[in-house]
């Protein structure tokens, strides 16, 4: 515990140092939410249109902002003023909000503590390095500005409760998490199937009793969150704010997911057809513009609607759901949840590149379990962090993000090569660990015995080298060679290239779920 | 008692892992170079992060601060021929941040000026760039410091650690070496002054550090060249001169042919100086003009509230009124040399590697306490050898870093670097007490290490000085003073009351430590000379 606090302390000092760095408009968004929740009665929270940044998180987050606004009001009343506070950029506002994120990371600390309590010390250290010093969280929360560390604390807590067999508690915390940020709902099917099969078992009567128990818990949580709004008859307004389907298939920066390939394919075919002589009109609508109007953003390929993406996510998720239905195991829950988020990330509607954290954070818990996991995580974590690079586009933060990724890579490399050393002497302890992980099948332990050492194959190596090439092209060669022409090309390249990595990770996880579990 | 502690440790380790008693095993198992890589990337990251904070004199016309001084030197060196750099002229107004550092700084400014010019020509344009401040300008300037740090200070640290390790002066464990590297690279004072306040101490300190490493590995000629370069980058490096002089002289005297050795060293020193000063050697006046710029005696014996002898005693004795600058100059020179003398004599008589490090510490402290025109920032110089001795002087390192930081607090407060100050101070404390590090382990091993190097008398002194109660009390006092400084306004009658109190406390500690280190250096010669001789024979 003392060591964990030390890790957290180091991270905190770094976060403090980063306070004056660039922050996105999310800082103003959250400041405005402080103002909304502080100055208006609850019945007007989801109606307020003073700023374009309307409240679009679920009610618990609004309550959380209300809680923070009490302190904000003590420090500087202007932060929480609905009108005078608009675009308020004084140090008091920035410091208060930054420090509130740093303090709320205590939930992450607690979640990590609970979920790593029972690991052997070396592995525990490594998981701490991956989670507490996660460069992705640092970039998104402490540079870009959001409260993800706080939310991931809840997620980790929920996963570790499930893994320890405390299903009711795990389900409860996940329900709470959903009422903080509905983006986490992608894993809800997995939770549903798992709890249904793992918790509500043991005969019809007992199963039904347990089903009603967990049902009651979930309903109670949702009632606590949405009850007041149902009472005011505003539930439709709340939902409309929370799910803005008016936004497009892709976010302003394309998240590295499946739709990037789809768009590129569309462009490619249209280009080829035009060459051949077909008359293909250039689409007017943009991918980020959303469903406004009837124009399709695609030239040739069929248009994608939110429904399509929804079905695709469910389809991709179905093998995992099927496996969970057949054989719900506590040890696998972290993988299933991460897999669900991977599907959501790849095929979802209006996915944000920040969502790649949803994959890399839960998977960190299992990254130390086997050599294969470590290799996969090494690649995934780098890709996920690299895909966040476009978030910090200003020159001042450039060395920061590069050094963060570099440091993370070095640390991971040291971690994993210490965990999977070459010599046989260390194998003894490794096999002990293996015994405890019962689900480890023969196939994987045999391959692990053949190649104990942590090293990357040439494909992975050249892929990572490609990351460097893409970055150098985007930052240095592109402006130098092409000037202002094709300004979107570097970002598109990053998206495409990271998408390859994420698709690989998806296939790897899918394979793992189908074969090994 | 000792055994009990050890038992506890063993039990704890068994509970934890059973295999590795070192929680940093995964980080350091690949050897010094890879742990250096890891620590240095982190240290670099911290430096970049500190660079986000304001620099000295941001948005404060007409004089601005050190940032503007450095930028102005780039402007001057880039646009004027070398012979005009130190001369007052219609295009070079020396009263506005005139160049007052030795030629190597000027060359460095020129190179950095070229860098700035390629990306932001406005920032170094003659005349029009006075007081130039911009987003890009700040970034580029910050990056010049970062690159100097990476190119000079970091390699020097690696060089030193490798030498130090091969001499087996430190303890055996790999994680101790990693801790040592972190202590040198994450020294909060240096980071704050270079990357926050804005200066290029990393260059002169890096060169000095490389010189120290070279001297320790018996490459005396290389050491003299490097040290001369350091001296030619910042005249403040002269704080180390007595130690280098006496150590190298002492070693020469031990040689078969002392005269030849001394002549070799002398020649190389003169040669290095000649190369660096080449543009000013065509006439006597030119060289003297530069020299007079380097010694700004008109600025008085001390500046602001620096925790040295002259400033502290001026509370009682008004030195500036009683004596002329001329006599103060002689007085301070005499006092400095006198206080350096014991450690110099020790090194001339019995030059040893450890003694050399202590001599560096002692001579730089004498200069800090007694020499002319000392600045708060000069405390960086004694801190460098102290961090090098981190494994020997663990408690002093913690304690002195604390007071060095404290003595610079008013300065950093003026620069609006309080947040960075707090964060870096916390980071230093955390790294210092890293679990599994030399200071985070059980007490038993600590006392054992200590008893190896110190005699009983010293142990008694240090047991009093480092008594938890004494340390706790002083620590609490300084914490309260920090809070008072930040929150309260001093009475109108004494506007600098708080600064004076801070100065008094820091001065008392610095004096105590100078005495302690001097006596420690002399203790060394009693039982180390025999060891050193044995080593030489081998």
From TrEMBL, chain A:
It is found in: Endoplasmic reticulum membrane. Its EC number is 2.4.1.-. The chain crosses the membrane at residues 95-114, 126-143, 172-196, 208-231, 252-273, 304-325, 332-349, 402-420, 456-476, 488-507. InterPro entries: Glyco_trans_ALG6/ALG8 (IPR004856). Its main location: endoplasmic reticulum. Pathway: Protein modification; protein glycosylation. The keyword Transmembrane applies. It is a multi-pass membrane protein. Pfam families: Alg6_Alg8. Residues 1-16 form the signal peptide. Keywords: Endoplasmic reticulum, Glycosyltransferase, Membrane, Signal, Transferase, Transmembrane, Transmembrane helix. The keyword Metal-binding does not apply. It is an enzyme of class 2 (transferase). Belongs to the ALG6/ALG8 glucosyltransferase family. This is Alpha-1,3-glucosyltransferase. It comes from Hibiscus sabdariffa (roselle).
Automatic annotation (TrEMBL), chain B:
It is found in: Endoplasmic reticulum membrane. Keywords: Endoplasmic reticulum, Glycosyltransferase, Membrane, Transferase, Transmembrane, Transmembrane helix. It is an enzyme of class 2 (transferase). The keyword Transmembrane applies. InterPro entries: Glyco_trans_ALG6/ALG8. Pathway: Protein modification; protein glycosylation. Its EC number is 2.4.1.-. PANTHER family: DOLICHYL GLYCOSYLTRANSFERASE, DOLICHYL PYROPHOSPHATE MAN9GLCNAC2 ALPHA-1,3-GLUCOSYLTRANSFERASE. This is Alpha-1,3-glucosyltransferase. It comes from Hibiscus sabdariffa (roselle).
């Amino acid at each position: 515990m003392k060591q964990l606090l030390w890790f957290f302390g180091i991270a905190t000092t770094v976060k403090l140092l980063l306070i004056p760095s660039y922050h996105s408009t999310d800082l103003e968004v959250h400041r405005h939410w402080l103002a909304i929740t502080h100055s208006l009665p609850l019945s007007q929270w989801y109606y307020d249109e003073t700023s374009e940044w309307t409240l679009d998180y679920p009610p618990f987050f609004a309550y959380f902002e209300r809680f923070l606004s009490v302190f904000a009001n003590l420090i500087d009343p202007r932060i929480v003023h609905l009108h005078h506070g608009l675009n308020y950029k004084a140090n008091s506002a920035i410091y208060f909000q930054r420090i509130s994120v740093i303090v709320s990371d205590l939930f992450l600390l607690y979640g990590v503590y609970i979920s790593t309590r029972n690991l052997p010390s070396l592995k525990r250290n490594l998981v701490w390095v991956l989670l507490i010093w996660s460069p992705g969280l640092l970039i998104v929360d402490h540079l870009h500005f959001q409260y993800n560390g706080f939310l991931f604390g809840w997620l980790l807590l929920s996963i570790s409760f499930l893994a320890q067999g405390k299903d009711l508690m795990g389900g409860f915390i996940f329900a709470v998490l959903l009422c903080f940020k509905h983006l986490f709902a992608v894993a809800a099917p997995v939770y549903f199937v798992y709890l249904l099969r793992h918790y509500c078992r043991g005969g019809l009567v007992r199963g039904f009793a347990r089903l009603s128990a967990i049902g009651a818990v979930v309903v109670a949580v949702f009632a606590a969150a949405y009850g007041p709004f149902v009472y005011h008859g505003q539930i439709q307004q709340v939902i409309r704010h929370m799910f803005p389907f008016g936004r497009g298939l892709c976010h302003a920066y394309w998240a590295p997911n499946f739709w990037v390939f789809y768009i590129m394919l569309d462009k490619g075919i249209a280009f080829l057809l035009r060459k051949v002589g077909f008359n293909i009109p250039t689409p007017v609508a943009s991918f980020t513009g959303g469903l406004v109007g009837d124009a399709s953003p695609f030239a040739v390929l069929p248009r994608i609607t939110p429904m399509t993406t929804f079905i695709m996510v469910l389809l991709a998720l179905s093998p995992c759901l099927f496996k969970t239905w057949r054989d719900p195991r506590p040890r696998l829950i972290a993988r299933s949840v991460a897999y669900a988020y991977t599907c959501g990330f790849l095929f979802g509607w209006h996915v944000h590149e920040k969502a790649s954290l949803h994959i890399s954070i839960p998977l960190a818990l299992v990254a130390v379990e086997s050599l294969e996991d470590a290799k996969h995580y090494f690649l995934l974590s780098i890709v996920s962090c690299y895909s966040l690079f476009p978030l910090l586009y200003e020159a001042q933060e450039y060395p920061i993000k590069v050094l963060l990724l570099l440091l993370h890579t070095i640390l991971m490399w040291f971690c994993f090569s210490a965990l999977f050393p070459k010599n046989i002497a260390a194998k003894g302890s490794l096999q002990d660990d293996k015994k405890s992980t019962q689900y480890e099948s023969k196939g994987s332990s045999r391959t692990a015995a053949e190649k104990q050492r942590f090293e990357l194959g040439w494909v992975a190596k050249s892929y990572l080298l490609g990351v460097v090439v893409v970055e150098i092209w985007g930052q240095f060669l592109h402006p130098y060679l092409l000037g202002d022409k094709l300004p979107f090309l570097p970002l598109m390249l990053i998206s495409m290239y990271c998408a390859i990595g994420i698709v690989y990770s998806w296939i790897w996880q899918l394979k793992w779920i189908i074969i090994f579990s | 008692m000792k055994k009990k502690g050890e038992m506890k440790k063993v039990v704890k380790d068994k509970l934890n892992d059973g295999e590795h008693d070192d929680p940093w095993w995964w980080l350091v198992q690949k050897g010094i170079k890879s742990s250096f890589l890891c620590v240095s990337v982190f240290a670099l990251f911290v430096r970049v992060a500190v660079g986000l904070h304001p620099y000295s004199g941001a948005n404060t016309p007409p004089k601005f601060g050190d940032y503007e001084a450095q930028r102005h030197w780039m402007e001057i060196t880039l646009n004027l021929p070398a012979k005009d750099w130190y001369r007052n002229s219609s295009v070079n107004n020396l009263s506005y941040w005139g160049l007052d550092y030795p030629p190597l700084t000027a060359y460095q400014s020129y190179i950095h000026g070229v860098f700035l010019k390629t990306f932001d020509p406005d920032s170094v344009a003659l005349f029009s760039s006075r007081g130039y401040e911009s987003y890009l300008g700040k970034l580029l300037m910050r990056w010049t410091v970062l690159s100097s740090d990476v190119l000079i200070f970091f390699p020097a640290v690696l060089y030193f650690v490798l030498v130090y390790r091969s001499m087996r002066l430190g303890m055996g464990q790999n994680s101790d070496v990693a801790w040592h590297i972190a202590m040198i690279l994450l020294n909060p004072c240096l980071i704050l002054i270079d990357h926050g306040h804005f200066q290029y101490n990393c260059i002169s300190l890096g060169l000095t550090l490389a010189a120290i490493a070279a001297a320790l590995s018996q490459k005396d000629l290389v050491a003299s060249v490097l040290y001369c370069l350091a001296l030619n980058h910042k005249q403040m490096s002269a704080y180390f001169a007595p130690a280098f002089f006496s150590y190298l002289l002492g070693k020469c005297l031990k040689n078969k042919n002392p005269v030849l050795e001394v002549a070799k060293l002398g020649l190389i020193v003169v040669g290095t100086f000649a190369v660096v000063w080449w543009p000013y050697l065509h006439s006597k006046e030119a060289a003297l003009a530069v020299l007079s710029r380097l010694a700004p005696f008109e600025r008085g014996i001390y500046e602001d509230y620096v925790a040295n002898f002259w400033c502290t005693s001026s509370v009682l004795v008004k030195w500036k009124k009683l004596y002329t600058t001329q006599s103060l100059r002689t007085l301070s020179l005499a006092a400095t040399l006198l206080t350096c003398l014991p450690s110099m004599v020790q090194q001339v008589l019995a030059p040893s590697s450890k003694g050399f490090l202590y001599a560096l510490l002692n001579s730089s402290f004498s200069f800090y306490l007694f020499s002319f025109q000392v600045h708060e920032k000069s405390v960086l110089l004694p801190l460098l050898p102290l961090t090098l001795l981190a494994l020997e002087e663990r408690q002093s390192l913690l304690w002195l870093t604390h007071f060095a930081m404290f003595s610079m607090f008013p300065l950093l407060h003026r620069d609006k670097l309080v947040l960075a100050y707090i964060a870096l101070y916390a980071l230093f404390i955390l790294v210092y007490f890293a679990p599994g590090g030399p200071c985070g382990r059980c007490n038993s091993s600590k006392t054992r290490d200590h008893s190896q190097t110190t005699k009983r008398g010293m142990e008694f002194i240090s047991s009093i000085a480092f008594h938890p109660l004494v340390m706790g009390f002083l620590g609490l006092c300084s914490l309260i003073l920090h809070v008072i400084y930040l929150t309260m306004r001093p009475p109108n009658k004494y506007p600098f009351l708080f600064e004076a109190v801070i100065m008094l406390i820091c001065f008392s500690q610095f004096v105590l430590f100078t005495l302690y280190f001097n006596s420690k250096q002399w203790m060394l010669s009693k039982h180390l000379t025999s060891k050193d001789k044995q080593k030489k024979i081998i």
